[in-house]
Amino acid sequence: TNTFADALGCDFKRVQFTPDLLPADITGTNIYDAKKGEFTFKPGPLFCNLLLADEINRAPPKTQAALLEAMQEKQVTIGTVTHKLPAPFIVMATQNPVEQEGTYPLPEAQLDRFMFKMSVGYPDRADEDEILRRRIDRGKDAVDVDVITDPQRVIAMQQACESVYVDPSLRMYMVEIVSRTREDPRVLVGSSPRGSQALLKTSRAAAAL
């Protein structure tokens, strides 16, 4: 994720999710300034372009819920004041699919806000040998990455995807796919309308590429 952020020229923050992590540790909080006699907002690590929620399922649901407004509305409300997040704003998360002790299931509302889920297994022998070869050639753990764009260009690319034409027949095909997930008894929880919107966004992005 850090490498991805470096290539995009974006501000990157990482939060290690733990059982004792509080929502304010992510979003930020109001701090009393004795000199001014007033509260001032101290932004949390959420205020970045690319956030990595590492081992997200180790934090309790209440803490995980701190991301809901941010991921959907691109903003955070502290008390009665709403703070806009930087653009672009992207959340990536990891979780250990093997270790279950000390973890919490992600709420459906949280899962619904992630566009993709990818399971990263073990590399095969050839790929692992290639990993070692590249590590030897680098002579260090860190990977040097060239900055290929910047936040403003990323925003422009996101906006460009909005102009990609979607034929009505393709739109109805997306609706059909999503509707089937709600009708099939083998599916515990069908897709919400966010699912069809995510399918629309990714289809447009794939077409643009």
Characterize this entry briefly.
With 209 residues, this protein is an alpha/beta fold.
Radius of gyration, CA atoms, in whole angstroms: 20 Å
Q: What oligomeric state do these chains adopt?
A: single chain
Mean pLDDT: 92
CATH class of the largest domain: Alpha Beta
Structural class from helices and strands? alpha/beta
Could you give me the name of the CATH homologous superfamily of the largest domain? Answer: P-loop containing nucleotide triphosphate hydrolases
CATH-defined topology of the largest domain? Rossmann fold
What's the architecture of the largest domain, going by CATH? 3-Layer(aba) Sandwich
Treating each run of at least 4 consecutive H or I residues as one helix, how many helices?
9
Please report the total strand number as a whole number. Answer: 7
Helix content: 25-40%
Order of helices and strands: HEHEEEHHEEEHHHHH
Biggest sheet, spatial arrangement of strands: 1-4-7
Q: β content, as a range?
A: 15-25%
Number of domains: 2
Could you give the distance between the termini? 21 Å
How would you characterize the largest beta sheet? 3 strands, parallel
Low confidence ranges? none
Shape: globular
